[in-house]
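On clarity, I found the account of how folds are encoded harder to follow than it need be. For illustration, here is how one protein appears when written out as sequence plus structure tokens:

:::
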Amino acid sequence: MDNTFKNNEAQNKELLFHLKEKLKRVKLGGGEKRIAKEHEKGKLTARERISYLRDKDSEFLEIGTFAADGMYLEEGGCPSAGVVAGIGYIKGRMCMVVANDATVKAGAWFPMTAKKNLRAQEIAMENRLPIVYLVDSAGVFLPMQNEIFPDKEHFGRQFRNNAKMSSMGIIQIAAIMGSCVAGGAYLPIMSDEAMIVDKTGSIFLAGSYLVKAAIGEHIDNETLGGATTHCEISGVTDNKYDSDQSCLDAIRNIFDKIGESEKAGFDRIESQDPKKDINNLYGIFPTDRVKPYDMKEIIEHLVDESTFDEYKKDYGKTLLCGTARIDGWAIGIVANQRKIVKTKKGEMQMGGVIYSDSADKAARFIMNCNQRKIPLLFIQDVSGFMVGSKAEHGGIIKDGAKMVNAMANSVVPKFTIIVGNSYGAGNYAMCGKAYDPRLIFSWPTAQMAVMSGASAAKTLLQIKIASLKKAGKEISSEDENKLLEDIKAKYDEELSPYYAASRLWIDGVIDPLETRKVISIGIEAANHAPITERFNVGVIQT
């Protein structure tokens, strides 16, 4: 084992330790004292509810764990955006589960809470998965109502999605396990079935204080909107239960009798482990984002039997294209090659850069996968498209547009894993968030921005200096160095995968060893949604 392998392994494991420590903190929600208070009320926490509800020893893929990480600090923070969401199994059936975390600001909705709920609904809609809402929320966080209330992607969109999912035949089950107030009351009641926990669950458009202020009526919250009121008088909810556990058991009973859904028919055989030890990923993958490496080696440590059938392997070599299997599922892979390659004409091409020939190859490969009904996996470590007169004269924009066109119009499900760089238009061409990947996750080594930190810092510095000089200020070399350091520090923070995850530009940050699980769950989810749209690229840039 050489020093390079050992150094990479040590650095990657240090990043993983940081990831695991962050996960521990986030999963405490509002903290141990708040968890204890929920237990005193006889309630389970959001994560305990999901754990009780889902099948024991089954996989659970959490979505948006780091949503709102480092945000809203002036309000005390909002871990996981105050809601836990993910893909799991209930009575053997795959579904999406969304649970408000009452330990975080009583489950109040911050702007990122709305964004995360909409992402969970989007995943359910795209994959036609049943969705379970475990409701326990004080409603919109009023000091930020202007950022959450009226726009298209704000709070109200979830109720539009409730209606759309119902019309699509997607099963929605809701349990009111705590507060459910104001507009939020529509979410469970627009579901197929709404259950409520007696004494702890309540639902109303306005609570007792607001009722008194608005119409002068004196009434307590339990009489106004408790389980007895809505199950025996109003008929708003369907059944009441005496504990969280009995309510969750009732949801499991519903899932026990759901009929089988149609399938898309993606090919799967018995899963095989990679022949190359997946644990060696830590040693062969460099944490230094400028160091070259062979992406084919990375792929062979991820795919079944380490078998990768490469497409046009001697052409357009800065992009690797080919078919493989992950956990038995057939998959088409488009990945950035990070080592320097040489063309037949003797031209040296930089790793991580998309050239005309590689864009042309990838476009054709993507079209083939659509023709053959093979899901697509994009593995990103991309600096961008090639620049300069030679590239421009060779039609790089045209060839890049062809690749983007084929990728954007794909009807097979797409998945994205960002392992390293994700810069500029390269992010777009390699199926960034804007291009509707069914799931998009990153490794702890990922960086996402318009350009690299060094390039951006120097560009921003020149803009800042020009602005200061225009204002008549003289800049010393010491001032210039200080400005550069400040700019670089800010930009480096924004490059972090946790910065991207906090804003839901990605669905989460994962240990590289979890990559196979993420892709397998993603394809299994996508297999619940038959492809009904015809693949059509429109006007292709030839």
About this structure: The mean pLDDT is 93. The CA atoms of residues 127 and 526 lie 5 Å apart. The longest strand covers residues 172-181.
